């Protein structure tokens, strides 16, 4: 069933495309040597080039080009060995040169595709139109002074990748899943940190609506949406607004809008009539960007494993599709899991990581990159389960102690004497005591009330402070009761 | 001999022989400037104290045994080159108070070779002009005047009019200049000196206030071809800070001057024979060809069929790039800011740019904005780029047959300051022989070759293959020797 929104005139389909602006991870800016760290003092990371001083010229940063190529390869996209920069001209106080150097006519990356997985487990392929490199503008601060605006040029000249999708998405969920997937791929590649709250990733959302079987209607662009949740909300809000417009007999006009996150509605920013004429033309300060195919091949060979491949590998290891999905969402989680699982039972490792470990992260508000229990220690705990030193319930006790103390599981087992009892004689002695103390129940059992079996097992375990090997306890109790 | 009468080569020799010091040489030029600059206005900023300090330091280096290629040589720097700690105006009100914290690569190269900077030479505002009348610092006067009309003040040409006038009037031994459509060669010809625009990419553009990025190229003006060769050797070279600079070795240009032209084939583009061209110009051109034949070259007619579109092509491409390059002068970060309390950003832009830019700069920004606008881009800018490619191809085909091309440098001698001022198109026609070399990125050298009937200098232009300045210098030096141009301007230091 495809997603629709019910209007007064019946169901409406949504058509969605995303332009994602992703800040490239690099030491220096796209065309200058200035640093790019987040959160620095205003105007402390600005070269004369970034500030548009007279006579300053851009020089391309090769690492930024490599990052764009890696991203293109990760998106299964065409790498264009010849591309070119253009100037996009407009005036604004935080745009020092009066133009943005971008790639308009000839982007570095052409068509590609990514597969998204939806909540019901189905998958869908979303087309990538292009990816191009461009420089970011600075930041205008309008709230620092009653009559003046302040300008921070730290971001001016930072390299961005603009990733443009085909209008292939049909629901807020698909838009959210697509953005999630792009973010995941970029983070795996190490080409963008994906920190949407720091502005290193943001999306322009193109939305239109239509009746089933129609071609495209006029679209509107919702600018600068800065979280996955807001993208999904903006899609729905904008679609509902357009449906309202169409159903009231009016027409939707192409325009740029903003998403008001507080009120959950979109507002007009500028109409097509006020749109800038950017007067694009080839950047004369930069020769065309020509890539060597061997260099591209070397980048390809050095690409890290991407989430789709990793997920497939996990499924092949015997993990459920769900566990494989959850464990590959973040690269850090996958790396943690693989350390735990190395040389051990993968399914057991997956259960512990997605179960007790994730629960502990939630409870302690910690992150997998700063885990309360190291992957090595969690692995050692699994070893103690496998060699029957610990039962499942003992292991949980040890895990809690590990969270509290940060100690290795072996140490905790030694200190607290939590070692599982597998000595049959010792278990038999306890069982004999339990039976002696509960002679009435032994009689009841033997006269057919077999559900009392659990009672004897429980009493035995209790007497042993949980340290009895559960299988052995079961066996001994059964034999003893049989008389 | 008065110290300002040295050629640059002669001054280097005298310094090396110890017959003069850099301080003496510099003082002589500063005296000349003090006397003549109030009238000629060739310098916008004279840095007398810095120059003397630099000259002293140079003499000291020489005593220590360190002698650069231009050790102690006083030069003028076109006020388009950013000079660290020295005001750089580009001839515009909008940069009136701009003191760059950085040095252009070309001027740094000269400093590294021991040169002494006398000051910043006047120019047309943002290098836009052919008469040096658009400078916010006022017009420059040509040190030459008409024999039968000595009271009419003549333009030195532009945009490097201050550089050319300073060198012609002996107010510097040489000067840096820039050439976007003829801004080195036309003023050199008008002032009776030599000047070369090298191949695009030969000199770094880093730190030079941009006019039209794909056409701008720095080069020297000096009183002899050899002096230009010596200066260019110091100015040129690969610069990783300019992505369009060429990573190629810089040859010994001065040595190439003495190669001669025996066996060379010199092209004569038939399309350059314009209707109504001054007979004196035609005669000089013929004379130049004869001199080259006498020296052992062969002259061959060649065709540059698209040359006739060069000027309109240039006046689309150059303003288009300029309209974008000049967007940074917005009153926000440096230079002039004009604003009213309570007004908005748009008002700041409008007031600042209206007050900061002169009429010619505003005209070119408007032309450039227009030709790049949606709906006009294809008809103007894109078409111009296609024609530019054809002009480049014309030259490539011509250079299959010839080693260099000879043309007049300008369609006339220097004109009066009041002439051509009300007709921008007539003014633009000054560049008719020179713009092709910019559009094709080729080296072009102007050489003083004779006088017109009024006693004003006329120049010839040698255009060479890309990165073959050596042949251009060889041809230029041959013409210079044959022309034996010894006439002197009326206004000059030491006179």
UniProtKB/TrEMBL annotation, chain A:
Give EC number(s), comma-separated: 6.3.5.-
Q: Does the keyword Signal apply?
A: no
Keyword annotations of the record: ATP-binding, Ligase, Nucleotide-binding, Protein biosynthesis
Q: Which reaction does it catalyse?
A: L-glutamyl-tRNA(Gln) + L-glutamine + ATP + H2O = L-glutaminyl-tRNA(Gln) + L-glutamate + ADP + phosphate + H(+); L-aspartyl-tRNA(Asn) + L-glutamine + ATP + H2O = L-asparaginyl-tRNA(Asn) + L-glutamate + ADP + phosphate + 2 H(+)
Q: Is the keyword ATP-binding assigned to this protein?
A: yes
**Annotated Pfam families:** GatB_N, GatB_Yqey
Question: What sequence ranges are listed for the domain Asn/Gln amidotransferase?
Answer: 335-481
Role description: Allows the formation of correctly charged Asn-tRNA(Asn) or Gln-tRNA(Gln) through the transamidation of misacylated Asp-tRNA(Asn) or Glu-tRNA(Gln) in organisms which lack either or both of asparaginyl-tRNA or glutaminyl-tRNA synthetases. The reaction takes place in the presence of glutamine and ATP through an activated phospho-Asp-tRNA(Asn) or phospho-Glu-tRNA(Gln).
Question: Quaternary structure per UniProt?
Answer: Heterotrimer of A, B and C subunits.
Q: Which family does it belong to?
A: Belongs to the GatB/GatE family. GatB subfamily.
The protein here is known as Aspartyl/glutamyl-tRNA(Asn/Gln) amidotransferase subunit B
Organism field: Falsiroseomonas tokyonensis
Instruction: Give the encoding gene's name.
Output: gatB
Automatic annotation (TrEMBL), chain B:
Instruction: Tell me the enzyme class.
Output: ligase
User: Could you say which EC number(s) this protein's record lists?
Assistant: 6.3.5.7
What domain of life does the UniProt record list for this protein's source? Bacteria
Please list the residue ranges annotated as the Amidase domain: 24-472
- Please write the reaction equations for the catalytic activity of this protein: L-glutamyl-tRNA(Gln) + L-glutamine + ATP + H2O = L-glutaminyl-tRNA(Gln) + L-glutamate + ADP + phosphate + H(+)
Active-site positions on this chain = 78, 159, 183
Q: Which PROSITE patterns match?
A: AMIDASES
Keyword list (alphabetical) reads: ATP-binding, Ligase, Nucleotide-binding, Protein biosynthesis
Q: Give the quaternary structure.
A: Heterotrimer of A, B and C subunits.
Its annotated function is as follows: Allows the formation of correctly charged Gln-tRNA(Gln) through the transamidation of misacylated Glu-tRNA(Gln) in organisms which lack glutaminyl-tRNA synthetase. The reaction takes place in the presence of glutamine and ATP through an activated gamma-phospho-Glu-tRNA(Gln).
The record's listing under PANTHER family reads:
GLUTAMYL-TRNA(GLN) AMIDOTRANSFERASE SUBUNIT A, TRANSAMIDASE
Q: Which family does it belong to?
A: Belongs to the amidase family. GatA subfamily.
Q: What is the protein's name according to its record?
A: Glutamyl-tRNA(Gln) amidotransferase subunit A
Write down the species: Falsiroseomonas tokyonensis
């Amino acid at each position: 069933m495809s997603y629709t929104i019910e209007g007064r005139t019946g169901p409406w389909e949504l058509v969605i495309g995303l332009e994602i602006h992703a800040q490239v991870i690099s030491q220096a800016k796209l065309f200058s040597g200035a640093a790019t760290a987040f959160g620095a003092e205003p105007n402390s990371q600005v070269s004369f080039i970034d500030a548009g001083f007279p006579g300053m010229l851009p020089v391309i940063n090769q690492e930024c080009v490599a990052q764009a190529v890696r991203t293109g390869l990760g998106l299964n996209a065409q790498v264009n060995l010849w591309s070119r920069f253009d100037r996009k001209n407009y005036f604004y106080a935080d745009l020092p040169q009066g133009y943005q150097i971008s790639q308009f006519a000839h982007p570095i990356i052409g068509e590609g595709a990514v597969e998204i997985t939806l909540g019901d487990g189905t998958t869908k392929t979303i087309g990538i139109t292009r990816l191009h490199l461009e420089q970011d503008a600075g930041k205008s601060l309008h709230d620092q002074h009653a009559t003046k605006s302040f300008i921070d040029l730290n971001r001016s000249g930072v390299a961005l990748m603009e990733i443009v999708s085909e209008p292939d998405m049909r629901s807020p969920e698909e838009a959210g899943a697509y953005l999630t997937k792009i973010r995941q791929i970029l983070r795996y590649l190490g080409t963008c940190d994906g920190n949407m709250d720091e502005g290193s990733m943001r999306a322009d959302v193109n939305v239109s609506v239509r009746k089933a079987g129609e071609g495209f209607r006029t679209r509107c662009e919702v600018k600068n949406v800065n979280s996955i949740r807001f993208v999904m909300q903006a899609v729905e809000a904008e679609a509902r607004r357009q449906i309202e417009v169409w159903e009231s007999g009016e027409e939707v006009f192409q325009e740029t809008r903003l998403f008001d996150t507080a009120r959950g509605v979109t507002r007009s920013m500028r109409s097509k009539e006020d749109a800038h004429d950017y007067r694009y033309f080839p950047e004369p300060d930069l020769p065309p960007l020509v890539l060597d195919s061997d260099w591209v091949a070397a980048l390809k060979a050095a690409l890290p494993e991407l989430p789709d491949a990793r997920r497939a590998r996990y499924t092949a290891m015997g993990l459920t599709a769900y566990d494989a999905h959850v464990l590959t969402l973040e690269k850090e989680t996958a790396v943690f899991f693989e350390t735990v699982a190395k040389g051990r039972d993968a399914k057991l490792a997956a259960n512990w990581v997605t179960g007790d470990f994730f629960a502990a992260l939630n409870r302690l508000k910690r992150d997998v990159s700063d885990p309360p229990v190291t992957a090595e220690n969690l692995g050692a705990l699994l070893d103690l389960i496998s060699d029957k030193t610990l039962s499942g319930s003992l292991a949980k006790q040890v895990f809690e102690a590990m969270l509290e103390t940060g100690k290795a599981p072996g140490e905790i087992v030694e200190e607290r004497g939590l070692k599982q009892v597998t000595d049959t004689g010792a278990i038999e002695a306890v069982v004999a005591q339990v039976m002696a103390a509960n002679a009435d129940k032994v009689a009841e059992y033997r006269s057919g009330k077999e559900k009392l079996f659990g009672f004897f097992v429980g009493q035995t375990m209790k007497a042993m402070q949980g340290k009895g090997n559960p299988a052995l306890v079961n066996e001994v109790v059964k034999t003893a009761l049989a008389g | 001999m008065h110290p300002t009468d040295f050629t640059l080569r002669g001054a280097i020799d005298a310094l090396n022989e110890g017959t003069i010091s850099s301080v003496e040489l510099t003082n002589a030029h500063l005296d000349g400037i003090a006397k003549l600059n109030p009238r000629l206005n060739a310098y916008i900023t004279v840095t007398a104290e810095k120059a003397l300090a630099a000259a002293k330091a140079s003499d000291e280096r020489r005593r220590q045994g360190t002698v650069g290629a231009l050790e102690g040589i006083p030069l003028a720097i076109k006020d388009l080159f950013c000079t660290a700690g020295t005001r750089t105006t580009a001839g515009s009100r909008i940069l009136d108070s701009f003191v760059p914290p950085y040095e252009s690569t070309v001027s740094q190269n000269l400093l590294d070779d021991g040169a002494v900077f006398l000051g910043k030479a006047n120019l047309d505002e943002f290098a836009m002009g052919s008469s040096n009348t658009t400078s916010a610092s006022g017009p420059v006067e040509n040190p030459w005047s008409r024999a039968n009309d000595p009271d009419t003040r003549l333009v030195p040409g532009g945009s490097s009019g201050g550089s050319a006038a300073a060198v012609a009037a002996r107010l510097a031994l040489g000067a840096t200049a820039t050439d976007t459509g003829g801004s080195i060669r036309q003023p050199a010809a008008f002032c009776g000196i030599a000047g070369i625009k090298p191949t695009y990419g030969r000199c770094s553009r880093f730190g030079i206030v941009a006019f039209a990025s794909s056409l701008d190229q720095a080069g020297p003006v000096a009183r002899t071809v050899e002096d230009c060769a010596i200066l260019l050797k110091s100015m040129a070279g690969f610069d990783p800070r300019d992505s369009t600079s060429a990573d190629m070795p810089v040859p010994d240009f001065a040595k190439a001057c003495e190669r001669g032209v025996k066996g060379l084939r010199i092209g004569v583009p038939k399309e350059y024979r314009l209707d109504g061209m001054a007979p004196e110009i035609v005669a000089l051109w013929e004379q130049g060809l004869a001199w080259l034949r006498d020296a052992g070259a062969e002259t061959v007619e060649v065709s540059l069929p698209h040359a006739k579109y060069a000027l309109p092509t240039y006046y689309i491409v150059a303003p288009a790039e300029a309209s974008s390059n000049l967007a940074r002068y917005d009153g926000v970060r440096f230079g002039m800011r004009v604003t009213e309390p309570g007004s908005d950003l748009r008002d700041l832009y409008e007031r600042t740019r209206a007050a900061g830019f002169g009429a010619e700069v505003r005209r070119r920004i408007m032309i450039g904005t227009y030709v790049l606008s949606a709906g006009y881009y294809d008809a103007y800018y894109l078409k111009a780029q296609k024609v530019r490619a054809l002009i480049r191809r014309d030259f490539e085909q011509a250079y299959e047959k010839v080693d260099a091309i000879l043309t007049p440098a300008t369609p006339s001698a220097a004109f009066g300051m009041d002439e051509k001022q009300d007709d921008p198109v007539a003014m633009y026609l000054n560049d008719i022989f020179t713009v092709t070399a910019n559009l094709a990125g080729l080296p072009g050298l102007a050489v003083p070759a004779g006088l017109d009937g009024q006693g004003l200098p006329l120049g010839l232009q040698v255009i060479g293959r890309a990165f073959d300045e050596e042949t251009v210098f060889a041809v230029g030096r041959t013409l210079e020797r044959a022309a034996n141009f010894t006439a002197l301007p009326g206004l000059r230091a030491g006179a």
